[in-house]
Write a structure and sequence with these properties.
The chain has about 200 residues and is an alpha+beta fold. Helix content is about 15%, strand content about 25%. It has two domains: about 30 residues; about 140 residues, Ribbon (Umud Fragment, subunit A). The strands form two sheets. Strands 1, 2, 3, 4, 9, 10, 11 and 12 form an eight-stranded antiparallel sheet that branches. Strands 7-6-5-8 form a four-stranded antiparallel sheet, with no helix packed on it. The radius of gyration is 36 Å and the shape is elongated.
Length: about 200
């Protein structure tokens, strides 16, 4: 292979005209538009996540703090409970929450005993509760079903669009024995889980 001698061709390799002109060199700079787009996508993701959480807490989940002993031994004072309300239809045995101001100054959490059209009879002498003539087996209650008014019995038919609710701790619970049936539309959700304290953590049914 023949070696090329540059001196033979009188080429000055130090001449500025030799090779690539400086004006032809393309300088690569940081693409600021990409940084802006990435920042926008990051902010957008955060906003979407916040909206989703708000929607879930508004239409699906809520956190309720239990106050008082009216649902012992099922729920304890200061328990933190998750309730759901999306597409909820009340059923007998559900533990439900009524907002403050409807029937009491504070939120009420009680158990549904009867639905619309059902007949409730309570014998305060024997402390027995009947629905449609059938004696309820209430292994969840912690105290006897008494009357705060000194009545011997209570007999009623649950009205349309209403439910009859009682607390599990019947000796102290302020419920349908005192203020009557409640409207289904006033129910804000069904209690599902105790999440705090961890010692009481668990599903309620």
């Amino acid at each position: 292979m023949r070696k090329i001698d540059l001196d033979e061709y009188d080429v000055d390799v130090y001449d500025d005209s030799f090779g690539i002109d400086d004006d032809e060199i393309v300088k690569v700079e940081t693409n600021k538009s990409n940084i802006t787009n990435n920042l926008y996508e990051w902010i957008h993701s955060i906003i979407v996540a916040i909206v989703i959480v708000v929607l879930l807490l508004t239409f699906v989940f809520r956190l309720i703090n239990i106050k008082g002993p009216s649902m012992e031994n099922t729920l304890q004072n200061s328990d933190k409970v998750i309730i759901t309300n999306f597409m909820y239809e009340p059923e007998v045995g559900d533990i439900v929450v009524i907002p403050a101001g409807k029937y009491y100054d504070e939120p009420i959490i009680k158990r549904i005993i009867a639905l619309e059209g059902q007949e409730v009879y309570i014998n305060y002498t024997t402390h027995e509760v009947y629905v449609d003539g059938i004696l309820l087996e209430e292994d969840y209650i912690s105290s006897e079903t008494i009357s705060f008014k000194g009545d011997k019995e209570l007999s009623l038919k649950v009205g349309e669009g209403e439910v009859f609710i009682l607390g599990d701790n019947r000796g102290v619970s302020y419920d349908s024995r005192s203020f009557g049936c409640v409207k289904k539309d006033d129910i804000i959700g069904k209690a599902q889980f105790v999440i705090l304290p961890f010692s009481n953590f668990g599903y309620l049914y």
